[in-house]
Amino acid sequence: MRNPRLRPYLAGSALVAASLLIAAPAHAAPPENAPSAQERSLPLTYGQDVSNHQPHHDWNASPAKFGIIKATEGVTFRDRTFARHWQKLDAKGIVRGAYHYGHPGNDPIAEAEHFLSMVNSQPAKPGDLLVLDLETTDGRSVAEVNRWAKTWLAHVKAKTGTTPMFYSGWKFANRYGKGLADYPLWVAHYSKAKGTVTPPADWKSWAIHQYSDNPVDQNVSPLTPRQLRALGRTAVKGGR
N or C: which end of the chain has fewer CB within 10 A? Predict the structure, then answer.
């Protein structure tokens, strides 16, 4: 998400296009002629995500049916535009979510608590999505990054009662995301047409495909807004 280190993971992969709803068995690769979401005319819900790089993004003019915004990064950074975006999304009444940009060089519990403190500083509603954005290793091994992600995700789930989403580029998720299939996947892959990406690693499906960052991060989901909300908070803990 607006991070140059992610680009190698977004453009270089030549994968077979397959639909979210056509998942191959774990032991088999998707067939080459598997129809894409577009080919099967599946409806796609359009959404956008922003951060402090787009401080004045006009949600009222946006056609997005869901919006996800940056809340925190590491253990100290707080996005100064979070409150504005959060309130604008609430006023528009579309599905909204908040994400944390993770750094495996830090303590995952400290980062999770930092994220929750920011999210809980604003009014929350059932259906709000919570997301871990993981794109960097900080020099850690595959096993260490994987363990870090599992710890962060499990902590947020325990604290909120909500299963967070996991966001990353396709190659990164495929390498570091083993064992995370219980967490809904938001995958970035810019060289695939919207809705035609194949799930990486252990995932059998994806919830959101980020297919472009021009002129803003653009996404599609095969889920309806109501189904997306079902992935978010069912009850609000904390917040005002």
Answer: C
